[in-house]
Write a structure and sequence with these properties.
CATH class of the largest domain: Mainly Beta
Structural class: alpha+beta
CATH topology of the largest domain: Jelly Rolls
Order of helices and strands: EEEEEEEEHEHHHHHHHHHH
Radius of gyration: 24 Å
Strand content: 15-25%
Distance between the termini: 78 Å
Helix content: 40-55%
Largest sheet: 5 strands, antiparallel
CATH architecture of the largest domain: Sandwich
């Protein structure tokens, strides 16, 4: 079994596992594993998952894990000690705008994190930047922490929603509650703001849009916009309200913007749509 100690608070290294290699590992530091290339399996806490390029694992301090390489595997390991963890905690405590932590990443439900495309590209840049910075670790140690916080923030917003779905105000019914709220408040933009809905449904602000898209296959902003247009189209064909009245009733501050959105959705201007329905 491989076991290492680390003396610098933060350290970044490139590691190669040859095809067919197998290794049990336990280290005296916290560790992120970023898979650069190759495929294999990682086992931790009695769970075994396959991995490929772009996957990220978090390994807790003194936690044993087993890794096997189906092909040659190249990974980058970002390691930080207990002292490094205290620095991260201090930075988050000092800045009220920084709300990330490794607590959710430690969850057994998040054994592996698979990043979305845009976040994958961003995380890769951060990881390789940290690898370059490691050429002068003493000079760059303070910068490491800020890059590490950025990486943790990206990982957090890509986590599974296992924790959320176990809460009282959740489960299969949570998306139904969100949809009901949206349809009930289509005429009130403030009630449909992400901050208001996140607070209403007791969800972290950054997780609400990700959860909604996972459940509905469309962004929450796109869904709200589409449903508002559907409601305005109904009023155009079932009431005598003017287009300006309909715009105002749904909180559209710019009537020309409404015209553009409506025509893009239906291929007709609101007035032509109304005439065609007559």
């Amino acid at each position: 079994m491989r076991s290492l100690r680390q003396f610098s608070a933060v350290n970044v290294q490139r590691v190669i596992f040859n095809e067919g290699a197998e290794q049990d590992v336990v280290n005296d530091f916290y560790e992120f594993l970023y898979i650069c290339s190759g495929a294999g399996k990682l086992r931790k806490d009695g769970q075994e998952v396959s991995f490929k390029n772009g996957d990220i694992f978090f390994i807790n301090r003194r936690k044993e894990y087993y890794i096997s390489a189906d092909t040659e595997v190249e990974l980058i390991t970002i390691r930080f000690t207990e002292a490094g963890k205290r620095v991260l905690r201090s930075l988050t405590d000092q800045n009220s705008n920084v709300i990330v932590s490794v607590s959710k990443i430690k969850s057994s439900k998040n054994l592996k994190v698979r990043l979305q495309n845009e976040d994958l590209a961003l995380a890769e840049k951060i990881v390789f930047l940290m690898l370059d910075m490691n050429q002068h670790p003493e000079k760059n140690e303070n910068l490491f922490y800020f890059q590490l916080l950025s990486l943790i923030a990206i990982i957090e917003r890509n986590l599974s929603f296992g924790e959320i779905k176990n809460e009282k105000n959740s489960g299969p019914q949570l998306i139904d509650k969100i949809l009901k709220h949206i349809h009930k408040n289509l005429k009130d933009p403030k009630m449909l703001s992400l901050s208001y809905m996140a607070e209403t449904f007791r969800m972290p602000l950054h997780q609400l849009p990700i959860y909604f898209k996972q459940e509905m296959g469309i962004s929450i902003k796109g869904y709200i916009g589409r449903e508002r247009l559907t409601a305005t189209a109904y009023l155009l064909t079932h009431t005598a309200d003017t287009i300006s009245q309909i715009c105002r009733s749904f909180g559209y501050a710019d009537e020309s913007h409404f015209y553009k959105r409506f025509k893009k959705e239906y291929g007709l201007s609101p007035s032509d749509y109304r005439l065609k329905a007559c």
